[in-house]
Amino acid sequence: MFPSLVPSPPLSISAAPPPLPYEADVASGREELARSEEIRRELTARIEDLRTELVDTQTKLAAAQRRSGELEGRVAVLARQNAALALRVGALEEEVAQMAAAAGAAAAAARERMRALEAAADLDRLEIATLRAKLAEREAALEAVRQSEADLTEAVEQGKLAAEQAARLRSEAAAASRAGEVATLRSALEGKLSAARREALEAREALASVRRQLEGMGSPDWLAALEADLRSIASPPSFPSVSRPQARPAPAPAPAAAPKPNGPAAPVVPQSTQQALRSLSSREGALRQQIESLAGQLAELQAAAVARLGPALVARAKELESGAAAARQALRERRMARDEQATPPSSAPHVSPAASPGAASMPDDAGLSSADQLRKLVAARVRQLLQEREQQLLQASAAREQQFQVRIMEAAWKGQLDSFSRSLAEAAAEKERATAAAGAAAAQVRQHVTELDALRRELSAAQQAVVKLRRAAEASRAAAAEQSAAASGQVAALSEQVSRLREALQVGHSVRDAWAQAAEGRAPGVVGRV
């Protein structure tokens, strides 16, 4: 950069000239030039060092700028990620808010539903308590009715036993007082007793099948057979005088028929009639007891069958009850018509035996009138028994119908109670389901809130990393700027020093040139002298 100062070759002087007055200045100038050259070399080395340092500083600055660009790119990426995370967080917050609102609405609806179900359950419990109270009252009333029926049945049985005992006592007293009359009429009543035994056997057989043939008891065939049996019992051909003509046991009753106008035998015929009526009453009582026992068994079987009936057979049972009532009404009408028409045919057997060939061995008119009276009494008694039996059947049917209605009401109440219990169980199950749904919604909301918190933590960590990177980039920028400023200051100082050195060198060159010119101006004289 700077021109090198080449020293001039020494002058060969044969004799030392006298020192010139400016040689000291030239020598000092040369020394100054030598020092300037050294300073120049030092400055040149210093400038090279500064240039190297400047290149290093520029390299570091470029690296810092590249690092800053990378950091800015990363900051931009993190900013985009931060924006995406912010959008996602906003979407999640909106979703969580919507889910929270939906969960709140569902919880409110569930609470409202639970309150409605609890109110309905309270109403159901109140109705159940009312129905239970009514059921208890009906059961108490039914128990009272059953107790009264049991008491009534017991009283009826006791009355029957008392009546039987009284009848037995009366029959024993009558038998003791009228043993003679019974002995005289015994032979005449053997046929009647045999017919009565046959009738009793037939009645037992009929009563054995009464549970299967209830409607057959009121049929015209059975009534005709009963009327025929009664006529056969009360008809005169059944006396032993007809069946045993050779034994001739009729002398005893013959005197009773002979003095007819005087009337000594008149008490015998009423006694025989009473005896026959007593025997028929006793036989009727036995048959009635059998009928009542069989009717009781039938009622028990019907009650058990009704108890086992289901709700589906209620209509059928009502139809059967109505049919039975209609049949009983028709039977009652037929019996009334038959009772009204029973008087003309009853006189035929009284007339026909009188015209028969065996009229000589038959009783007299008093016997016929007593037999007619006996038949009338028997027919009236049979009608009375049939009416009583019909009344008993009607009462039993009414009682069974009442029990059946009570059972139907009990079944209906039990059905309502079961339906209320089922509705209460369904309400409890629905309440549990609503509680479970609310718990699931709350758990889902908690999960979303947890995810949102995690995202928020990640976002805050990313923001902190971005802040750190920004701070590092700013610090690196500041350091690079400081280094660049320091290098610029050093370069400026070096440039100033270089300029000063250049100025000094120019001054030195000008001085040297001046000295050289001055030396050249004095040189010809010296050479000439040499």
Please explain how this structure is put together.
By secondary structure, the chain is mainly α. The protein has 10 helices and no strands. The chain has helices at residues 23-177, 179-208, 220-234, 240-243, 253-257, 268-308, 314-340, 343-346, 348-351, 365-529. Helix 1 (23-177) runs antiparallel to helix 6 (268-308) and helix 7 (314-340) packs antiparallel against helix 10. The model is unreliable at 1-16, 236-269, 343-364 and 523-530 (pLDDT under 50). Residues 1-20, 237-281, 326-368 are annotated as: Disordered. Residues 248-264 have a biased composition (Pro residues).
Assign the CATH class of the domain at 23-105 and 441-529: Mainly Alpha
CATH hierarchy: architecture of the domain at 23-105 and 441-529: Orthogonal Bundle
Q: Give the number of DSSP strands.
A: 0
What's the shape? rod-shaped
Strand content: under 5%
Q: Summarize the helix and strand pattern as letters.
A: HHHHHHHHHH
Helical coverage, percent range: over 70%
The biggest sheet, with number of strands, parallel, antiparallel or mixed sense and barrel status, is: none
Cα-atom radius of gyration: 75 Å
Distance between the termini: 39 Å
Low-confidence spans = 1-16, 236-269, 343-364, 523-530
CATH T-level topology of the domain at 23-105 and 441-529:
Helix Hairpins
Number of helices: 10
Overall pLDDT confidence: 67
Structural class computed from helices and strand pairing: mainly alpha
Keywords: Coiled coil
